[in-house]
Specification:
Helix content is about 5%, strand content about 45%. With about 400 residues, it is mostly beta strands. Strand 1 and strand 2 form a beta hairpin. The chain is elongated and about 125 Å long. The termini are far apart.
Length: about 400
């Protein structure tokens, strides 16, 4: 009885080997299911319009779903798991906690400068799977400012901020005892530049405070007309076109209810600041001279009046220690918008020699920057006179 059993086992193993090599047996192949003993119908191809070439099969086009670019969303986390989408500004009572949530992976936060230097652990940022959070506890009026969330675009380990997708909110931390964001400086020096807007950063902690601008000497309130000088609760006062009369010691006064407070004092110093880098033009009295002739090289700049311009020269005679002789000429320019002047620096070289042959370079510099220009002068040796035969 053992022999037939072993033969049966060996036969089964041989059949399995054939199945692994050539596939399943015909008897094991699955037959299509039928209902009521009927054979399944072959699927018909959908036909389109007939043409001379015969019926045309219609191929279904795959629908491509347009996906809108992900939008950065900034919300405030309220109590009991409630959320509120924030607008341009947000007011929080000083002492309360603030929690912001920004959609994106990853994101980076920007906070007011005072908080960037915070070492008390009141500020905390966490990156979650689909969003980042910013949490601030034990808030004070000094935390007032702009909070910005930047989505990050990353390629492997290299990430950069997507500035065009950033979202921000200006948060006021209303403090009933401090109407201005506190400052450690009693005086702050601010430079007034011609035609450059200047801001006096007397930042209030509550958007409901009434603020006015005052001059210390002589004591007077500075009129704010909304054009030359404007005010914003998110930045303070802005002088749009500074003039010499705006210089001096100024401060802000805020009023809210029965409370009235003064800000840090701002010492405004007026500087006649140029509009652009000077554009010098250079010209020599002659580009070709003979030894013994005199040379004048003029460097001319046209610009605003009362704007200081410094001229420096580089010339061939420097190599042998020839001293520099220059003179400066200022003349007003008539016509055109605003008062303008022409300034000339003239380099004088008496009785040129062959060592004065070469390139002359003039550099004009103002508070905006410097620019140089050059010209080349050739000096020929003086011809020797022939002696008359006796």
């Amino acid at each position: 009885m053992l022999v037939p059993i072993w033969r049966s086992v060996l036969c089964s193993l041989w059949i399995c080997a054939l199945i692994l090599e050539f596939g399943h047996c015909q008897g094991d192949a699955e037959e299509p299911k039928t209902t009521s003993g009927k054979k399944p119908k072959a699927p018909k191809a959908k036909l389109g319009k007939e043409t001379k070439k015969g019926p045309r099969a219609v191929v279904a086009k795959a629908k491509v779903k347009a996906t809108a670019p992900a939008q950065t969303l900034l919300t405030q986390v309220l109590k009991k798991g409630r959320f509120q989408r924030v607008g341009d500004t947000l007011t929080v009572r000083a002492g309360d906690a603030l929690e912001l949530r920004c959609k994106g992976t990853p994101v980076q936060w920007s906070v007011p400068p005072y908080l960037e230097e915070d070492n008390e652990g009141r500020l905390r940022t966490v990156q979650h799977q689909r969003y980042g959070t910013l949490s601030l506890v034990n808030s004070t009026g000094a935390d007032t400012g702009e909070y910005t969330c930047y989505p990050m675009y990353c390629e492997e380990t290299d990430c950069r901020k997507e500035y065009d997708k950033a979202v921000n909110v200006f948060v006021f931390f209303a403090d009933p005892q401090e109407l201005f964001v506190p400052s450690s400086n009693y005086y702050e020096v601010i430079q007034l530049r011609t035609n450059w807007p200047t801001r006096l950063p007397c930042q209030v902690t509550s958007p409901g405070a009434a603020v006015s601008l005052h001059r210390e000497f002589p004591p007077a309130e500075v009129p704010v007309d909304g054009a030359e000088i404007t005010f914003s609760t998110r930045g303070g006062f802005t002088i749009h076109r500074p003039r010499p009369q705006h210089a001096g010691s100024l401060y802000c006064v805020a009023s809210l209810g029965n409370l009235r407070q003064a800000s840090t004092k701002y010492m405004l110093i007026y500087v006649n600041y140029p509009m652009a880098v000077p554009a010098p033009a250079i010209e020599a009295s002659s580009s070709s001279l003979t030894a013994g002739d005199n040379l004048r090289v003029s460097c001319t700049v046209v610009g605003e009046t009362e704007v200081a311009i410094d001229f420096t020269w580089e010339y061939p005679g420097q190599q042998i220690g020839r001293p520099l002789y220059t003179q400066e000429i200022r003349t007003p320019v008539a016509g055109g918008p605003g008062a303008r002047q022409k300034i000339q620096s003239v380099l004088l070289v008496d009785e040129v020699r062959e060592v004065d042959h070469g390139t002359y370079t003039c550099t004009a510099e103002n508070l905006q920057g410097a620019k140089s220009t050059s010209t080349t002068v050739q000096v020929a040796a003086k011809a020797k006179l022939k002696k008359k035969p006796q």
